[in-house]
Amino acid sequence: MAPPPAAGDAREKVKIPAFALMGTAIIGILWQLLMLVMNILGTGAGMLGGMSSELSPDMMSMMSGGIGILFNIIALICGVVVLIGAMKMKNLQSWVFALVAAILAAVPCTSPCCCIGLPVGIWAIVVLVNKDVKAAFV
Description:
By secondary structure, this protein is mainly α.
């Protein structure tokens, strides 16, 4: 099935936000892998060093150990979903999957920090809800 004629314009509109989503996902996956290894080694929240004085001991213990490992695994899965959704967005496939990926990227605890995931996720959502872009998806 050939893409609609307007797909070329839509492909240009989604290209940069899709690559930004991919970058966000890759940074998030790498960060969560690092934190997972640190949690397995038992040094998870201790790696934060300078922040430890600002966090309560309860918060520190929650961010390491079993709960930290579980959070890292969930965040890794979210990162993979965002990466796959970004690739689908770039190829104008599965609008719903691409939208879910953009929303996941915008959720602060599932992507690399609010300063990257939130603006990129919102940007991707804005592009995806454009009627011409939505119509170009297969």
